[in-house]
Design a protein that fits this description.
The chain has helices at about 5-10, 40-45, 50-60, 70-75, 135, 140-145, 150-170, 175-190, 190-205, 210-225, 230-250, 255-270; strands at about 15-30, 30-35, 80-95, 100-105, 115-125, 130, 315, 335, 360, 380, 400. It is an alpha/beta fold. Helix 8 (about 175-190) runs antiparallel to helix 9 (about 190-205), helix 8 (about 175-190) runs parallel beside helix 10 and helix 9 runs antiparallel to helix 10. The two termini are about 40 Å apart.
Amino acid sequence: MCVSLNPMDDIANKDLIFKGKVEHIDTLFMGKLAKDNQWSTLLKLAWGYPRWAKLLKQAGDRIKPTEYNQWLASEFWEETRYRVKYKVVTAYKAPKLDVIEVETGGKTEGRAIGQEEMVFAKGNIKSGYETKRRCFAFSYFWRTDMGDLSYQKVLDSYWLKQQQLASALGLSPHNPRLLYEQGQLYLQYRDLDAAEWSFRELAWYHPNDIAVKVGLTQVDFYRSLTKTDELSKKQGYEQALAEFNAILRIAPNNKEARHGQTLALLYLGRTTEVAKNAKDFSEFDDSYKVNESINLKNFFAGRRLAGANFNRAHLYQFNFTKADLRNANFVGAFIEYCNFTAANLANAKFTGLTNFEDLPSEKNNFTKANLRHADFSHASLSRFDFSQADLTGTNFSNANLVDCKFDNSLAR
């Protein structure tokens, strides 16, 4: 998907991110290594595809071997792929390897031996990595090409935190707090293999620490989010839910387990079982529910959610009518076409609010809402309706308020 998610979400959606120097490029035709003048092999690959076979036969008589790869790329760019070997310069989200190979489709896009480039890819060590160069890296290049270094700063921050924890663990290798902190850092960026390694290292030296069960259950739960078939996803959620419930019986105040329990119940559609005091909805995303028959759009309406955390949540067409959302945190959330009519949002934070394409969030309804001392600073707002809302002390500094409505609002 070539969309510009916010940096944290975009990093979480990639399996591999690193800066590398191109060492070697192999040309692949229909998934097979293509070498100069291997016409008979290529004809076998193209068997059953008349256009390809015809062009290959014609080319066999007139294309010089030295021009072969260039011709292949120009005529068959949709069927031609490249296996690029990189020497790793900076590993942001990558296995600990000096050299990594990545397959890329389409055209070479000016790639040359010795060139340094940022690589964003999907896959794993076992089955290999692949990328669509500009598409997979769209969010990164979209910013950097305009001089916006915000994405690079997030990557640099993640890399620095990894180095700091690795250094601390070098001095105290079996420290349970550091191992757990390392695992949670990897989880935050969905580096699940690395997170599992940290938690299993913790399990080896501290098998009775409840943090082991918490961390490994989180890894299993997040892996379930990416499953595509309904049955596997449902089974994954139910297994994780059972584990989170077991943890909460021993440690009822464990915030990670409570968060996991809340999301698992929502995605399973078991909304009546969500704890009345559940307040952590960070990273909630309606698209992860087991099936489309589950309707969560009205779950938050009228609920007591003072102090709730919606950081990095994806909220599209959700109903928050008359909900108690005092001191709620919506920083980093995607909010679009949501209804906050008559909700109590005193002191709530919407700082820097944008939608997932970094365009203004649109058409959110705050009619008659209590927004006393709420913070919309640096938020990009478009067509928000603040009619009859209480805006006493509301902070709109440096906010984009294009086409917003403030009819009969108070104290703007």
